[in-house]
Structure of RNA-directed DNA polymerase from mobile element jockey:
Amino acid sequence: MTSSASLICALQETRWHPVHNPPPPFYDYTIFFNYHPFSDFAHARGGTALIVHNSLQASSLDNLPLPNPSSPEIDSELCSVWISLNFHSFQVALGNIYVPPQSYRAIPLLDPIFSRLPSRTIICGDFNAKHPSWDSFCASPNTAGRSLQRLIDDHNLHILNSSEFTHRQSPLLRPSVIDLTLVSNDLAPKVDWTISHHLTGGHRPIHITINKSFSTTSPAPRPPKWRLSAPNVKLFKAACESKFLPLLNHLHSSDNTEMITSEISNSLHQVGLDTIGLRSQKHHSPKPWITPKIKSLITARNKARRKNQPDIYTRLRNQVRFAISQAKLSSDTKFLRKICSSSSSAFIWKALSKFCGQKRSNIFPPLTYNDTVADTPVQQAEVLIQHFQSISTPSDHFDKSFENFITEKLANSRKSFDPSDQKAPYNAPITTFELEPILSKLKNTAVGPDNIPNWFLRHASPSLKTAILDLFNKSFLQGRFPNTLKVANIVAIPKPKKDHSLPKSYRPISLLNTLSRVFESIIQKRLYYFCESTRALPNSQSAYRKYRSCIDPLILLTQSAHANFNRSRPTIMVQLDFSKAFDSVWSDALKLKLLNLGLKGNLLSWISSFISNRQYRMSTPHTTDYHHFPLGVFQGSILSPLLFLIFVADCASTLTSFHAEFADDLTLWYSADTIEETIRVLNSDLRKLEIWANKWRLTFSLTKCTYSAFSKNRRFDPQSIPKLFFFGIPLTYVKYPRLLGLNLDPELSFSHHISQICTSGLKKVNLLRRLMGTPLQSNRPALLILVKGFIRPTLEYASELFHSISTSSSLMLERVQASALRIITGATRNTPHEILNMECGISSLRLRRDQSILRKLNKIQALPADSLLRDSLTSWWFNDRSFEPINTKRPCPSDVPTKSETRSFFGCAYQAHQQLLECHPNQTFPLISNPNFHPPWRVNPIDINYHQDFRSILRKALRRFQALDYTNSDTCQFFKSLHPAHRPLWPHSTLRSFTLSRIIFRLRSGFCKLGAHRHFGALNQELCPNCNQTDTIEHLLFNCPAHSHSRAIFLSKIVSIANQPATLQLLLGFPPNLSNHALTSIATLTALFVQKTNRSI
């Protein structure tokens, strides 16, 4: 405690006893401890203690209903100690709890304690509770974990634990997270949680800090930043026009692109300095609630203290405290109200991270490289740039003769220049119609070496646009990219779950000049047009292409595996991954491949100049000199992804097995009549890839190259089959592979993937729970945006593939979404999902999976007719649906898919299409019309209108399916009796407090804590405690004689607002004939009346 300067220490399993085993003396500290009454010196067990420094004002909390373990009806060894301490002008309750293992009935005893705790509480201890919400090493929760999760949900507590383990009994045993730290919502942003890496008796010490200062060491100074918060656009455009208009003739008369680029950059930078200005970046921005009025009050308070004026000082101190509290509340409210329905996901995530105190540190840890340690910013920057340069340096073990062949062929191509090559459409001069759309869509990203933000070009004046267009045309027609634009700043981004003390754990991201980004965007569109029109890219490549996504390789793989399930054949899959893909592209070989594709003229010359003689420098943690990188394309460049696809386009052209590619990820799979034939084909293809990689100087990450197997036969052992070899190394078998973010299992049931995404979703729900102690808790639309933007995408990624999951897996997904909605609405944990979805205007995940499948079908039909995915879908839909079922000799009808096929994507799409036809029987849906159906841009206007209206048709069908589910539900009879029709309720009423909103929702749902509406078992009577009548919602609002006087006033106000008799539907906000303002007023009055009755709802 002395070495860590800790003021409070929480200990569990102390085994202290006031008589038999008293605690040792701690000087300058006060000890609060509790013990088990059955403990003695020989059999001491359990016990908790809080050791508090005497500089803190601490006292024991004696008003809590602590359980008595000596009671005969409680067989528990639960021990807890609670204190109250004054800290930074507010009071905090601190608790320390120990729950022994296997004490399943101990945690529910904490419910009455948590109910009596103040609003600012910190709870720590050894709970011995395991749950995937906080323990990533736990596959399924134990009884204590489920009980603790219910307590956390009921009392809106926040878990500070990260994914690191806290307990490990032995290196041979699985670690666990049983030492937890819970805090109330309003304290969560003020508490910092860290963990030590030293084990003490199997447990790792945890450090909790309130209002911690995050400045431990001084990071490198940041460069100045442009003042773009509220710029004067008119002044900037006028200054640009006056600056560049006289320069147009001078720039137009010169052919020196280097001089023109420097002139434009320098002039634009000077205009920015004159009109926008720069500001220094502080590492710790001032507190936003410190206003000039508060500063003057603080100055006066300090002055009164120095002059020894106690009366004036006390008055000013109270004024400062009140002003700061009000300013904090106003600042938080203003900040969180920026989140609205039109906010982008990036803005919401940035605002949420900023509010939770999560900041990206600009400090690098000491880096180890070549047996040397770099601990200063200058040394770290030099180590990183040397490491990145070594990656882009060609190795000596590659074939030199092939390099000479490429050099000679490129030299011959330059000599055989044909002027007719310039007539190709992609070699035409750049026009204003290409430049202006790109300038208008520029986003505010980080600046490059020229320190010119995209905002300058987005608001460029006409003369500046003319100068930029003239520069681009001269550079393009000359076939030379200016050397002043061939530079880039490198930012090292740490890779997740890596050792950040090693340089290889960082990814280099290039920040380019603004003019270079615009120029690349124009060239990228032309090169993409050339590649798609000439079929230069393989059909198996799905990355960075229109109407394609990372789902396409997964669809092809799973569809093929399901087809092999019907034939009782296993499918062997091999996953390959390029090592340092973008950084290892051979520039001369890329030029040769572009030449072999038929690219000629200005575009070929410009790209050849673009990828040659590039220079880089580190910009963080320190700016270095420029270094030349022989190999690679920029990571962060707009043109680099397409150039990489061209470079690896022929890697799988000669393979026999099925394959699919997504950028640098290559997947092979094959299935034959015998497993030996399957392994022979795959080994042959792997050998072809070895030859190709050695030829073109690319390497594979052998640690990431694995193989897996898919089979319904449980007696099939994938590890007993012949070995697969790649570069002479046998591939490792992985039972649950992760392919493009999807966790696969041998039977393609996706149960493993569902459990993983549910765990991730619960962690994000815990982050949502943290916001409930802020002003954002009463802003339900903003919270729903967080649910739709962060929690639901985790549960819906690749949902087209696991549409036909089991009922239990589907229910797991629905529970995660329901837990988030339960936090927002304040519902009880037994509230049905249908009521939560109805109240929040969110559809169920099952219906959204149907919708995503139909949307994917529509996108597949937009692909070219010869695309691999569309060809497979068309062939299956019209020809291949009559497979022979497993273990039967009788073929199934041609129009009915087999059981295994119904679980595949095509089978699920067929069922969803049939449901859509049943929902709209009078409308035709040419999703799969015939094999000759063309993409939308090649068909008649009728088909084009169909594709434009398809989303609206899907929305109508989704609403109809929601109505059917709501009508057929048996779990919300009370809610349906008040609201029989399935239509949106009054707009997410934002009442003035979350408490009122929670009361009105529990009343209208029927799932509340009134006696006749309890859904937690028959533990309570159904009679009103005041009049012994049936305790229903209608009785409380209309009939209970205990509240007759306040009820008369309340109902008279309701009648005056609604101009109609007060009914239960009216009080709960269901009638559709009133305005939103009237419904909100009525709901507010109803909630206030219930709140005055002091009834627990």
About this structure: The two ends are 45 Å apart (CA to CA). Residues 941-968 form the longest helix (28 residues). The longest strand covers residues 79-87.
